[in-house]
Amino acid sequence: MAADALRILGTLSVLLALLLHGLTDAAIVAFALPGLMLPRFIGMRPCADFAVSVTLLVAAWSNVYDLYTRIGWWDVMVHFVCAGALAVVAYLFLAHRGVVAPPVARGFSAAGAVVLTTAFGLALGALWEMVEWIGHAYLTDRIYVTLDDTIGDMAAGGFGALVAGVYLAYGPRLIMPSALPARESSETTSRS
C-alpha cells in the first residue's frame, strides 16, 4: 500500500510541479511515472517496489529543486542509486516476460545477472545523458550538461548497477514467485 501511495503521490507531483514550477519541471517529474508503475506490474516485493518508487521520486524532485547543482555529491549518489534500481527493474521485467531466467530458477546465472544488470544500468545512463543533452540543447539552458558531469554520471550509474546486480544475484528475492511465468515459478525455491 505504501508503494501504491507513492504512485499516487507521483501522479499528483506532476500537477504540483506544473502549477508551482512550470511545464519543464512537470515533464521531468512525469518522466518518473513509468518507472513508478513498472515494479507493481512485474510483481516486485513490496519493500523493493517502495525503494524503487522513493528513489525515482527523489531523483525527479531533486531536478526540480536543483539539488544536483547545489549539493556537490548529490548528483553522483542519485545516479548510483537510481541506475542500480532501474537496472534491477529492467532485469526483473525481462524475467517476468520470460526473456531471462529469474533468480533461483533453473538456468539462472548469477554472473549473467550481474553482467546484464550492469549493462542495463550503463545503457539507461547513456539514454538519460542523451535526454539531458537534448533538453539542454533544445529546451532550456537550465539543464546542466558538461563532459565531466556526463562521464561522472555514467560511471556512477554503471557502478550502482554493478552493485545492484550483485544484490539481485545473491541477495533476497526482489520479485514474488507468483509474478513469474508459470514454468519458472514452479522451478524456483523460496529464499528470503
Automatic annotation (TrEMBL):
Please state what the protein is called: Uncharacterized protein
**What Pfam families does this protein's entry cite?**
DUF2238 (PF09997)
Transmembrane segments annotated in the record for this chain: 12-34, 76-95, 107-131, 151-170
The family database entries (InterPro entries) matched by this protein are listed as:
YjdF-like (IPR014509)
Q: Could you list this entry's UniProt keywords, alphabetically sorted.
A: Membrane, Transmembrane, Transmembrane helix
Its domain of life reads: Bacteria
